[in-house]
Amino acid sequence: MHLTRLRGACDPKPTCPTLYLTDRGSFIVQGYIVATAPSRPLPEREAEVEVPVSMLWTSPSASAPNTPAVRLTGHGTAIVRGVLVDDAEALARLSLPEGETAVEVPISLLPEVVPNAL
After folding, report:
1. Reported pTM
2. Phi and psi of 104, rounded to 5°?
3. pLDDT digit string (tens) for 4-34?
4. Where in the sequence is the domain holding 80, given as residue range(s)?
């Protein structure tokens, strides 16, 4: 899987919340692992990551999609739910630090990020 780094929360370092575009028509969202409540289990191979809202939407007119896959926390971050990244090449590029993971989501989930990619 080929990754193109779009932006990160602590540019230029790659080991913090970061957003990538893939060659598969999706985004990889690298962020802080969100613990899931036992009363709200996720499907197998899915996870949630927390990232700054500014990493997902840089336009003041953009708004969060109305979907369970993206939830605003109310304190400047968003929780993004997606499929855990298991591609060896992608994982080697991400070099995830402890406490972070990466999920893959369709481009259509965050169309404001790359409007011309749809």
Report:
1. 0.84
2. -105, 135
3. 988 876 755 556 789 999 999 899 999 999 9
4. 3-117
